[in-house]
TrEMBL record, chain A:
Presence of keyword Ribonucleoprotein: no
Source species: Candidatus Raskinella chloraquaticus
HAMAP family tied to this protein: Gly_tRNA_synth_beta
Compartment(s) of residence: Cytoplasm
GO molecular function: arginine-tRNA ligase activity; ATP binding; glycine-tRNA ligase activity
Designated name of the protein: Glycine--tRNA ligase beta subunit
GO CC field: cytosol
E.C. number: 6.1.1.14
Biological processes per GO annotation: arginyl-tRNA aminoacylation; glycyl-tRNA aminoacylation
Keywords: Aminoacyl-tRNA synthetase, ATP-binding, Cytoplasm, Ligase, Nucleotide-binding, Protein biosynthesis
Length: 712, 276
């Protein structure tokens, strides 16, 4: 079976777009092939900085013949309908159609359309240019003299040539003729930009991969990544150093080179006084290089791993020298920022008012940075005031929450007042992704309490479902205060997330609050503890809680059942514990049977209440049961009384989680009741008494959960 | 065609009318020039070996871009002594955008052994107008390249006149004092009251020249109006360096300059050189 080989050769494609582009090419072409009635065995796409390539194996030489019956209007229909039918069926005269009888419509025209199979090459000639013209690049451009027209071809960067061959494995292939806005297909590609730029003639995929490899191009990005990681590890091991794995960076670098050559550079040991995270951030983000550590201490070593795109005739000496010079300049900058941040600000004297409001000590450098943030009146959100005002609110809230979390209120307030200070540091200005961490380092250097330092770094956490949740009480307090202030604020100005729009990441903030209280076992009555925390925000939390439970594989459908039972409904930890206890109970035999008994009772009541047009309120005629009731009836009445008391005792003791098991004692009595008793006794008094007994059973379960809201 | 620098304060070679305005309209254009560029915020009082508030760009604009622009660019590096057999030259994604000029393009920063030595951009839009045809722009950082070619670590150590011994003149001999003085000026002393007024004056002059130059469907004074747009842009950069523009106001000023740029672009498209 013949194979297709397609290569779209262009100027350098951004690394971050290559993987998706290869996949889009594969999908675009194979979807088109299938739509044209062609089958194939395999399809694989590749990307390098300068090319997207696709191989499709096992294609037929042509698509199968197709026969289609197209139903038209009835005989005698208006001429417009007839003409439309002729056009859509590709007929020139209605005589070419046959007439069939259709039950409802009577006699209708039928066109028998024979579609002979088309040569695969012809299909490809039509399909490929369409895929290229409508390619889903995130950003694309026009270029060259053709760009006089605003409808000229768009590509991610100028597309310069197209290779496209088709043919069986054992015989010569043919060029699939394509013309995409003047770029005509051929069987020519080019090797490495500097090491093998000459044209290369290619017949098929295997030939293509081999010849590219000889021309210093590794086609497969995964292969390039593996080479980079393996070479880097080998070089490190030889120097008794440990390579620090960085999958994301390796992926990116694999998109920057066609022929990876890993080299090791050095920098002055004196730079190791800068925090390791900063060294890594600058070397990684600006230079796309890896950092290396000492295997014994785990501390960063004064080396870095760079990936060049050529085998240099001087074995990389000039490349290493040049990269070392840039890294040196970058680290000098970083050290300059570091030292500047530790020094005094020239205008610190102007911040006295802000310092008083926030309780800052302007003798300290990090306090000065917070003073500056407040003094600059940087707007947090137009309707929510400045960053300084926001920090004041967080400080107040942290102080209020601290006792509930078990944190020292003074430490929590101190941490909150410094948490955002690093936003005005030179370091965070340069490396925004290090916010929090930089503040922590500066706090440590000015001798803040360890919990305050930890809280400054951790108050942004958790940033997502996989992120670490802080465990120090001070950090938990500030993290909660930061997120709750955000949520309450945006709710107050009615800027809530809608659909896929959540520009202020409020869902993430709510999830953060949930994880903070649940994973740290903190009972926090949100509506009491947080000023302006309203019902609407609480129901937003319920939604997030359900999502969170669902994502962690728990029974999110039990949330409504638990909420329906009443009790403290703004203590998220309690809700989760009750859901867990209920879920465990429902998994047990007792739970399953009790739920079945509940449903049976509820169904009977529903039917009978509808029939009678009344509600059974559970007021049981005790005397009647005692005098005329069956033993099972009497037993159930007694069991309900016991269970009600047990559940009530648990709840009074705050043991909501233990309450479901207290219901378990009801099970034998409920089972026996349904086995022996006919509820709809001919005697209306007895019937009413029994229905009321069931209503009382229904009511007895309610403090635990609204079982009616439980699925299954 | 080799042109001379524009005789006004600009933030980059792109602001020269030979790039901004000539990138508009259908007429072919090929020019190169050196442009002294001022970025008030980048001043470091002469203490940083890499950052300057005044530096030189070599700017090339080719409209429409020739198909072999990358090859031409690489040949230009070879011409100044960069040997591709031992140096690692790379095109790394860098999409260019100038909010004040209402302009954007796609291209790369060009790396030599990990150092950015040029910007390479295919202009897609300028002054709010789609480029038709697209122009290719090459911007070489002259100090960076000179440091590379001379193997110098600190810009102030560059040999400025090619002589040695007593006759040697360094970049620092020429520019260090200016960097120190202008840093003081840009960050501490620039007269903000005057600058705010100058911004308003440039803005209103730009509008009034544009109004005065309109003659039916022709425009007769796009270039003088554009000078005022450049002026406003530089004054804004100075105010920004002085830290007297808050974050919220900042966006407003950028939009006002962009409006000027757009209006100048509209006018230029009705001139002889900018029109059909």
């Amino acid at each position: 079976m013949p194979d297709l080989l397609l290569e779209l050769f262009s100027e350098e494609i951004p690394a971050r777009m290559q993987g998706k582009a290869a996949e889009d090419l594969r999908k675009g072409i194979t979807d088109g092939l299938v739509a044209a009635g062609l089958t194939y065995d395999s399809a694989k796409a590749f990307a390098t900085p300068r090319r997207l390539a696709l191989v499709v194996g096992g294609l037929p030489l042509s698509s199968p013949d197709q026969r289609e019956e197209k139903k038209g209007p009835r005989v005698g229909a208006p001429d417009a309908a007839i003409q439309g039918f002729l056009k859509s069926a590709g007929l020139t005269s209605i005589d070419q159609a046959t007439i069939q009888s259709d039950g409802k419509k009577g006699e209708v025209y039928i066109a028998l359309i024979n579609r002979p199979g088309r040569a695969t090459v012809d299909i490809l000639s039509e399909l490929i240019p369409n895929v290229i013209r409508s390619f889903p690049w995130p950003k694309s451009m026009r270029w060259g003299s053709a760009s006089v027209s605003s409808s000229s071809l768009r590509w991610v960067r100028p597309l310069t040539s197209i290779l496209c061959t088709f043919g069986p494995e054992t015989e010569a292939t043919e060029i699939v003729p394509l013309d995409v806005d003047g770029i005509v297909s051929g069987n020519i590609t080019y090797g490495h930009r500097f090491m093998a730029p000459q044209p290369i003639m290619v017949s098929r995929y295997e030939d293509y991969v081999d010849k590219l490899l000889k021309a210093k191009v590794v086609l497969d990005a995964e292969r390039r990544k593996a080479i980079i990681l393996a070479e880097a590890r080998t070089l490190c091991t030889a120097q008794n150093l440990e390579f620090i794995d960085d999958e994301g960076l390796a992926q990116e670098v694999a998109g920057l080179v066609e022929w990876p050559v890993v080299l090791m550079g050095r920098f002055d040991e004196a730079f190791l006084t800068i925090p390791g995270e900063v060294i890594r951030a600058t070397i990684r983000a600006n230079q796309k290089c890896f950092v290396v550590r000492q295997p014994d201490t785990g501390a960063l070593a004064n080396r870095f791993m760079l990936t060049a795109n050529i085998e240099a005739s001087d074995h990389g000496a000039a490349i290493i020298g040049g990269n070392e010079r840039v890294v040196r300049a970058r680290l000098s900058d970083a050290r300059h920022f570091w030292q500047t941040d530790l020094g005094a600000l020239p205008d610190a004297g102007d911040y006295a008012q802000e310092a008083a409001a926030l309780g800052l000590d302007l003798a300290k450098s990090l306090d000065q940075r917070m003073g500056k943030l407040a003094h600059l009146n940087v707007v947090f959100h137009q309707k929510l005031g400045t960053q300084g005002e926001r920090v004041q609110r967080i400080v107040a809230l942290a102080r209020q929450l601290a006792p509930l979390v078990g944190a020292d209120p003074d430490l929590a307030a101190r941490a909150a007042s410094l948490a955002k200070a690093d936003l005005t540091s030179e370091m965070v200005g340069e490396f925004p992704e290090l916010q929090g961490l930089i503040g922590r380092r500066y706090a440590e250097l000015q001798g803040e309490h360890p919990s305050v330092c930890a809280a400054i770094e951790d108050h942004y956490k958790p940033l997502g479902p996989g992120d670490r949740v802080p465990s120090d009480p001070v950090a938990i307090t500030v993290a909660l205060a930061d997120k709750l202030d955000t949520l309450v604020g945006f709710w107050a100005i009615d800027e809530k997330p809608t659909g896929s729009k959540d520009p202020y990441a409020l869902r993430r903030a709510a999830l953060g609050v949930i994880r903070l209280v649940v994973e740290n076992g903190i009972h926090l009555r949100l509506t009491d503890a947080v000023p302006r925390f309203g019902e609407d925000l609480l129901s937003f939390f319920y939604d997030r809680l359900k999502v969170q439970l669902r994502d962690s594989g728990a029974r999110h459908d039990l949330v409504d059942a638990v909420l329906g039972a009443g009790g403290a409904s703004d203590d998220l930890l309690l809700i989760v514990r009750r859901v867990e206890a209920l879920a465990a109970f429902l998994k047990s035999d007792d739970g399953t049977n009790l739920l079945a008994g509940y449903k049976r009772a509820a169904n009977i009541l529903k039917a009978e209440e509808k029939k009678d047009g009344t509600t059974f309120d559970g007021v049981v005629d005790e005397a009647l049961i005692a005098a005329r009731g069956a033993p099972e009836e009497q037993a159930l009445a007694a069991a309900i009384a016991v269970a009600r008391q047990a559940v009530s005792d648990k709840i009074t003791a705050g043991n909501y989680a233990g309450a479901p098991t207290a219901l378990a004692a009801l099970r034998p009595a409920v089972d026996a009741f349904f086995e022996k008793i006919l509820v709809n006794d001919p005697d209306p008094a007895i019937r009413a008494s029994r229905l009321n007994l069931l209503a009382r059973f229904r009511a007895a379960t309610l403090p635990v959960a609204d079982f009616g809201l439980i699925a299954g | 065609m080799i042109l001379q620098p524009y005789d006004m304060e600009v933030g980059a070679g792109t602001f020269h009318p030979a790039t901004t305005l000539r990138a508009l309209g259908p007429k072919p254009w090929r020019a190169a020039y050196v442009q002294p560029s001022r970025r008030p915020k980048d001043g470091r009082y002469g203490e940083n070996p890499n950052r300057l508030q005044h530096y030189y760009q070599f700017q090339v604009i080719l409209k429409p871009n020739p198909p072999d622009l990358q090859k031409l660019y690489l040949a230009s590096l070879a011409q100044i002594g960069i040997d591709m057999g031992i140096h690692d030259v790379r095109f790394v994604e860098d999409d260019w955008e100038s909010p004040t000029l209402g302009a954007w393009g796609l291209g790369w920063e060009c790396w030599c052994d990990g150092m950015e030595v040029s910007q390479f951009t295919y202009f897609q839009q300028v002054a709010g107008f789609e480029c038709a045809p697209v122009a290719g722009e090459l911007t070489y950082g002259l100090e960076r390249l000179a440091m590379y070619v001379q193997g110098v670590e600190n810009v102030y150590d560059l040999n400025f006149n090619g002589l040695e011994g007593a006759d040697r003149i360094s970049y620092g001999d020429v520019f260090l004092q200016a960097e120190q003085e202008y840093s003081r000026h840009n960050f501490e002393h620039a007269d903000t009251g005057m600058l705010f007024k100058q911004f308003e004056m440039a803005e209103s002059a730009c509008h009034s020249y544009l109004a005065a130059g309109q003659a039916g469907d022709k425009h007769l004074m796009a270039l003088p109006a554009y000078d005022q747009c450049i002026k406003a842009s530089h004054v804004f950069n100075l105010l920004d360096a002085r830290g007297v523009i808050s974050v919220t106001e900042r966006q407003g000023y950028i939009l006002r300059v962009r409006e000027l740029a757009k209006a100048c672009g509209t006018a230029y498209l009705q001139t002889r050189d900018g029109g059909r």
